[in-house]
Design goal:
Length: about 650
């Protein structure tokens, strides 16, 4: 949700910023902008579209021209606009936006600047008290040119420097940030400081890339991996000062006995990410690449974790298993697709480990004064590891003294760092906004967790554990088998591309799959869809059924409620509903009964969510492709939701 990037080094900043923004576009794509400082020597003769040139007398030191170009729309629009602007300079900041305050237009795009561009800022997050700060600044004579919360930061830092001219610019930022409530990942650029970037984070991610004589700041690693693999994941509530000769990190507010901000010793770590993993690899969209690579990436997620004897080894949580095994309850908090994976986990854990599980929307959990006990285990599930509501649920659980585990894909992300322990999904970067491989990755990791917990609690026999472990490891073959039937989903998608509404029905383990199937379709094709527990259809949705309503029903033969699912199908057929049945290969029961039948390899009941979600992913993808929707960047959505 908004991506920020900054560069300071010997090279031209513009290309690096634009490339970084393109890589982070999945975080937000309704507008984009850059600000580049040209040192006076470089700046001679350059034109100035949208430029705010020399700074006013209020800023100390010599002012260099800062060129700002911002555009509503995608980064490609910004790239076309900057071409004509003759921008040169080796220090700059950039932003790709997902609007929170103010519609997506040129003036609401970031960077935001003080009146003469003495201070420019890019921001990811939401400033909760921006209204009162804005009033205070307006009373002092500052005028605002956007509807955003972010603009207050530019004026506030400018004002702080004006009021306290002896303060170093980074100290002015620190002082200004103490007045702010809410979440931010920010980077400031000063027109009188050609050798300085100041970044800070609270609640939104920010990483520092340490290259050869150059530095980058960004919301995520994909934006900088082509320049350096050495990064510092900035801790919560820290401020980083970057100069050409080095950088220093300190706490924003915490001070030592001497009253000075506490320094923070950064750990430089090596990124595991490779460039190839964040490219489309010949596919038209990231989403289809990510769907198709599931057998391979899920094998990676299980490698070294399921041994040849079927036993499970999850290093991150192994020492805690005795404590987890004693939990009186497991609470799972997540949002969106991750919540659906959590619902699958409820079925997995309760059936295999006999521990009560509650699954909660993190956004509800955090505000409903939940009862959390010290012997509860709270599990946060998140692809990005940055979802604001899930992160808040983690904090709440920790404050209550519960053990908090994170099941996260993005290494080094906030949830990964703030939970007591956890398991990474290891399915590689997911760039398509609609989650696919992260969902199956979550289900795989949660299945391994359930097996490890069942072993610890002795709720499954040794033989059962071993055979389930190996069956899970082999599930990649079943998934590959489901993908091999992609043609059928493609053909079906053609017939349904003009549908107005869909129902998805499933029972037991496939109830969350029905919810997820409906969510996928809504997200990328903009067709209304509802997921329901099949038996609940009678309690309302059945009123919607007519010949124009496609109803997708999951009917695995291994489901103990198979006969009841068939009865649910008859109820749809009796009302002329258009039946689409997903069932096992070799099951011909519906071939003449249903309008369409999608087949997948047969799987044990508890593995079915992994296999049955594949045709639903494909169906959504192909329908959206036929409708010519912007599949990887659906309207109004963002991959990483760092605001409430
Ligand atoms: C956004 C994304 C969804 C995702 C949800 C939770 O809404 O568009 O695809 O499922 O956030 O994200 P998380 O990163 O916490 O899994």
């Amino acid at each position: 949700m908004c991506g920020i990037i900054a560069y300071l080094g010997p090279r031209q900043a513009l290309e690096i910023l634009l490339h970084g923004l393109q890589r982070m576009e999945y975080r937000g794509y309704d507008s984009a902008g850059i600000a580049v400082l040209s040192q006076l020597a470089d700046a001679a003769g350059s034109g100035s579209e949208g430029a705010a040139a020399a700074a006013s007398a209020a800023a100390p030191g010599t002012a260099h021209p800062v060129k700002v170009v911002k555009r509503a729309g995608k980064v490609a629009r910004l790239a076309a606009a900057v071409e004509a602007a003759g921008i040169e300079g080796s220090l700059g900041i950039g932003h790709t936006r997902w609007s929170t305050h103010g519609p997506p237009n040129d003036s609401n795009s970031h960077p935001h600047c003080s009146a003469g561009c003495e201070v420019s800022v890019v921001h990811n997050g939401v400033l909760e008290n921006y209204g009162s700060l804005k009033k205070m600044l307006q009373a002092k004579g500052y005028t605002f040119s956007s509807d955003t919360d972010t603009e207050v930061l530019a004026h506030l830092v400018f004002d702080t420097r004006k009021e306290h001219p002896a303060l170093a610019p980074e100290e002015a930022v620190r002082k200004a940030l103490t007045l702010v409530t809410g979440a931010f990942g920010v980077v400031f650029l000063f027109s009188d400081q050609p050798d300085l970037l100041v970044g800070a984070r609270r609640g939104s991610p920010l990483i520092l890339g340490v290259g050869e004589g150059e530095y980058l700041l960004a919301s995520d690693a994909s934006a900088i991996v082509e320049h350096t693999k050495h990064v510092v994941y900035l801790e919560e509530d820290t401020l980083v000062t970057v100069r050409r000769g080095g950088y220093s990190i300190s706490h924003i507010t915490e001070t030592g006995a001497d009253g000075k901000p506490l320094p923070h010793d950064p750990e430089v770590v090596e990124l595991e990410l490779s460039l190839e993993k964040i490219e489309k690899g010949g596919h038209p969209h990231f989403m289809i690449k990510e769907i198709m690579e599931q057998p391979e990436v899920l094998a990676n997620a299980m490698r070294g974790r399921i041994l040849d004897d079927g036993s499970i080894h999850l290093g991150g949580i192994k020492p805690l298993l005795p404590r987890i095994a004693k939990a009186s309850r497991i609470i799972i908090c997540a949002c969106g697709t991750s919540l659906h994976a959590g619902m699958v986990a409820e079925y997995l854990i309760e059936s295999m480990c006999r521990v009560p599980v509650e699954v909660e929307y993190a956004s509800e959990f955090r505000y409903r004064t939940p009862i959390i006990k010290e012997d509860d285990v709270v599990i946060a599930i998140s692809q990005s590891g940055e979802t604001a509501d899930t992160l808040a649920a983690v904090k709440l659980a920790k404050e209550a003294g519960a053990l908090c585990l994170g099941f996260v894909n993005v290494v080094g992300s906030s949830i990964a760092r703030q939970t007591d322990a956890g398991v990474y999904l290891h399915v590689g970067p997911e760039i398509g906004v609609a989650s696919t491989k992260a969902f199956t990755g979550q289900v795989v990791v949660l299945s391994m967790f359930a097996l490890a917990l069942a072993a610890e609690r002795g709720t499954l026999s040794k033989e059962e554990l071993a055979s389930r472990g190996l069956a899970l490891r082999d599930s990649t073959k079943l998934i590959a088998g489901a993908l091999a039937n992609a043609d059928k989903a493609y053909e079906m998608a053609k017939s349904f591309r003009f549908a107005h509404s869909f129902l998805y029905l499933g029972r037991g383990f496939n109830y969350p799959v029905a919810l997820e199937g409906a969510l996928k379709l809504k997200e990328i094709s903009y067709i209304h869809a509802e997921g329901y527990a099949a038996a609940e259809m009678k309690h309302g949705p059945i009123a919607l059924i007519d010949a124009f309503m496609p109803v997708v029903i999951m009917a695995p033969k291994t489901d103990p409620t198979y006969d009841k699912i068939k009865a649910n199908m008859e109820e749809v057929a009796a009302r002329d509903g258009c039946l689409i049945v997903v069932t096992d290969e070799g099951n011909d029961e519906f071939d003449s009964r249903a309008e369409h039948v999608l087949k997948v390899p047969e799987s044990p009941e508890w593995i079915a969510p992994l296999v049955y979600s594949i045709p639903l992913q494909l169906l959504s993808y192909y329908i959206a492709a036929f409708r010519k929707c912007p599949i990887d960047q659906p309207r109004n959505l963002a991959k990483s939701v760092t605001v409430e």
